[in-house]
């Protein structure tokens, strides 16, 4: 069984007036091991709505625990932190106007 949850963790306004949307996808598709530990793939993606730049930060086979999930969602996990930094850096330099 696979259950995916995707949520927007943060949005950053770019200097061009677009946003960088930072989403977190948690895919729980690993069977619990003999110790009953669940595993998940946690993917952070930062996507700019101005220029279309995207960056993925993937963490495969992470222990699926409540603290791990909230660290991912609150961007305090290592990958969450890296994604946040990328999004902030991009927002500070991207001058593309919002598309559409
Ligand atoms: Zn951009």
How much of the residues is beta strand, in percent?
35-45%
Q: Classify the secondary structure makeup into a structural class.
A: alpha+beta
The profile of the biggest β sheet is: 4 strands, antiparallel
Helical stretch count? Answer: 2
Number of strands: 4
| Number of domain modules | 1
Verbal overview:
This protein is α+β, with helices and mostly antiparallel strands and about 100 residues long. It has one domain. It is built from two helices and four strands; from the N terminus they run ββββαα. Strands 1-2-3-4 form a four-stranded antiparallel beta sheet, with helices on one face. A hairpin with a 5-residue loop joins strand 3 and strand 4. It is elongated and about 50 Å long. The N and C termini lie far apart (about 35 Å). About 25% of the residues are buried. The structure holds zinc ion.
SSE order and pairing:
Elements: E1 3-13, E2 19-28, E3 39-48, E4 54-63, H1 66-73, H2 78-93
Antiparallel strand pairs: 1-2, 2-3, 3-4
The structure holds zinc ion.
Summarize the structure.
By secondary structure, this protein is of the alpha+beta class. It has helices at 66-73, 78-93; strands at residues 3-13, 19-28, 39-48, 54-63.
Keywords summarizing the entry:
single chain; 100 residues; alpha+beta; 4-stranded antiparallel β-sheet; 2 helices; 4 strands; binds zinc ion
